[in-house]
Design goal:
Layout (H helix, E strand, L loop, with lengths): L1 H10 L1 H24 L5 H32 L5 H31 L5 H6 L2 H28 L2 H23 L4 E3 L7 H14 L3 E3 L7 H13 L2
Parallel strand pairs: 1-2
Helix pairs in contact: 1-2, 2-3, 2-7, 3-4, 3-7, 4-6, 6-7, 6-8
Length: 231
């Protein structure tokens, strides 16, 4: 990790661009194709190229944002500094950044038509697609970003890149129709659960908890007690 931080210090924004291309695009896509045992075709390579440009640019913006966070709030890891950095990160930077990311991919999917941005700004799209996505992101990134901001400044971007890779891999598996087995809790909010159900239904795959409590004696005893007092 120390060598990684040293490389980042030497290469600056170029390192940020390459890191996000590696962790947000290349590794998740490669893992997906390996699991599906198929080689990427021309369309997949074109999609990866476009995604590389988008996420590489995002990587540079994230690196610059982390630098400004240090200027604004300092490099400490006391609770006040962590709270300020996390609030600005997740309530200001993350919504703007992810709105632009969604817009760029929607723009591509709509044939680079200007109508894509009108659709992106519609109430239906914001309520049914953007906000559920942000809710899912917050459930992962708020605790993760607290860990990131506890680290030395030189390690924050590399660790954030690795967290991003796990998130992108999970999304890639669902989009590829790969069944997902989760430990409890499957989600932490109703919005996440509804978003997950929509994703797996659209891809014809299944998502289920690794274990269930129904057969256990404590659950059966609690259910019996509940039934006796509610009939």
């Amino acid at each position: 990790m120390g060598q990684w931080a040293l490389l980042k210090a030497q290469w600056g924004l170029a390192f940020a661009f390459a890191s996000y291309v590696l962790f947000a695009v290349f590794l998740p896509e490669t893992l997906q194709h390996l699991l599906l045992r198929r080689l990427p075709g021309r369309e997949a390579w074109t999609g990866m190229g476009y995604a590389a440009l988008v996420f590489g640019s995002v990587g540079m913006s994230v690196d610059l944002f982390y630098r400004y966070q240090v200027i604004w709030f300092g490099a400490g890891n006391d609770w006040s500094t962590l709270l300020n950095k996390t609030l600005v990160d997740q309530l200001v930077f993350a919504p703007i950044s992810n709105f632009l990311i969604m817009g760029l991919f929607l723009w591509r999917d709509e044939g680079f038509s200007g109508s894509a941005w009108t659709k992106l700004c519609s109430v239906d799209y914001l309520s049914q697609r953007f906000m559920p996505m942000m809710a899912a992101l917050w459930s992962v990134w708020i605790p993760s970003i607290l860990v990131v901001y506890c680290l030395p400044t030189s390690l924050q971007f590399p660790v954030a890149s690795m967290i991003l890779s796990f998130w992108m891999a999970a999304c890639a598996f669902i989009e590829a129709g790969i069944h997902v087995l989760c430990d409890k809790p499957v989600t932490t909010t109703l919005a996440d659960a509804l978003d997950l159900r929509q994703r797996v239904a659209a891809q014809g795959c299944a998502s289920a908890p690794a274990t269930t409590a129904a057969p256990t004696p404590p659950f059966l005893s609690t259910k019996k007690h509940h039934d006796q007092h509610h009939h």
